[in-house]
# Entry
Amino acid sequence: MRAHQQRQRHERAALADAWADPRLVFASTTGTPVDHRNDTRAFKALLVAANVRCEEVTTEGGSARLLPKVRLHDLRHTAATLLLAQGVPARVLMELLGHSQIGVTMNIYSHVMPTQLVQAAGAMEDALWGEGN
# Structure
């Protein structure tokens, strides 16, 4: 974060009064809000450069190019699934994701719950009969 702040200070100084909004933590190189399309383009470029989850397609001109099969939004779903599987309470996950109701979170991520049910049963067994029985 400090490196980001330093880089942003240099960008802001170079543009002086042309910097759009000094309150933004994550801004474009001109101080405007980051356009989500830029994030998507950068993410896809990283996937193609690393050849991760890409497929080769033939363009109308007959040339081949790699296209990513992963959306940037898929990272949000993966992170949420991993957090829930690691025991982060669903209520905390709801807050992180910005869901308005716990039901929304549970409807989307209930597929992770069987693992937690097994863990809960194991915890109950340990509580009743001692660990390892």
